[in-house]
Amino acid sequence: MFFVTALIVTLVVGDFGSTFFYHVPQHLWFTLHLRTHHDRRRPYFDHAVLSTDPAVLLDGFLGAIPYIIVAALLWRLSWPGAVAGLALGQLHVWWRHTSELGWRTPTWARALLRPLGIVLPEDHDGHHRNPEVEFGDIFRFYDAPARALLSWLAPTGRRARNAGRRATRRVPARA
Ligand SMILES: [Zn+2]
Ligand SMILES: [Zn+2]
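A: This is the predicted complex of the input protein with zinc ion.
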């Protein structure tokens, strides 16, 4: 039982931490994740799974830190469960990027995973097509709160700053 608890908590709480303390802040204020994970010049299977580019690996590692912290906290409850959670999380990284390779989730798997809120490759493909949607790397129930947080904090974001800079630059031109 402790095994299952540690496994599930590693994934659910780890994804919570990764979504709200790494993924959303990256989309708002930073560029590393956008330059690497959302690099549209390369197929995303390459930079999500195959690439050994240090910036790509750094993005992956920073995103994994919350899972590692949660797994470490659960170590005494059940270390095999925590390790299994991390391993499943890594498998999910590979799996959720397979749409580009032509993977289509079979109907039975979709019917099984939908009620659990698990991100399917088709869902994560949506995040690569439109980086404004489909947050939550493993669980889709983080998508709505992540988007709410993003729009709430949008005035503090990189995009608002850049728009402000463009607007002030336009003033002398108009004068
Ligand atoms: Zn991705
Ligand atoms: Zn992203």
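The two ends are 71 Å apart (CA to CA). The chain has a mean pLDDT of 92.
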